Task: structure prediction
Amino acid sequence: MNWDWNAVVDFLPHFRDGLIVTLQALALGSVVSFALGLVWALLVRTPTRWVSWPVGVFTEFVRNTPLLVQLFFLFYVLPEWGLTFSALTTGVFAIGLHYSTYTMQVYRAGIEAVPAGQWEAATALNLPLRRTWTVVILPQAVRRVVPALGNYVISMLKDTPILMVITVPEMLGEARLYAQETFRFTEPLTVIGVAFIVVSYLASVLLRTLERRLVR
Result:
């Protein structure tokens, strides 16, 4: 099949809509994964076993089951329990929850990398535990883990096409619908392939810039 530039031009409005949804899912999913990951990391460090043990079991279960299974569960099973959300909301939460179990490990590594002297200094200054975490430990830990967190942002971007299976109109979903209507597959799939490369590259550049700023 010959390349048709008219098909590319015709697909661009669909591509724009899909790109917006993809970026929304990525941004919101990243926020959810970073926030929940930090919560999990703090909870598994608590000395109370009835808190740390269930959190550890839950995150291990989520990390070792496919994202697609979790997505289907949230989208099809939760409504049977009276919990109904939009497809995009469900997709964002599924991606965020799944990747939070990975960012949890990143946060744990960052926290454990903080020198013991920092903890001892906070204790010597008689800082409250909450202030020790928010002022001394977490700022240092987060700066150390920005590169690893950035890698998961790019991984989440590459997993957004899976949201197509629950009718989220992200880029691949828009390309599939366009191809089914026009029987032109080469142009839309090529466009979104290039778009993923460009967005991934821009995200990596932004993350490297942020990393350099935090290291200063």
Remarks:
- The chain has a mean pLDDT of 89.
- The CA atoms of residues 43 and 174 lie 40 Å apart.
- The longest helix spans residues 5-43.
- Helices lie at 5-43, 49-63, 67-77, 87-113, 116-124, 129-159, 171-182, 186-215.
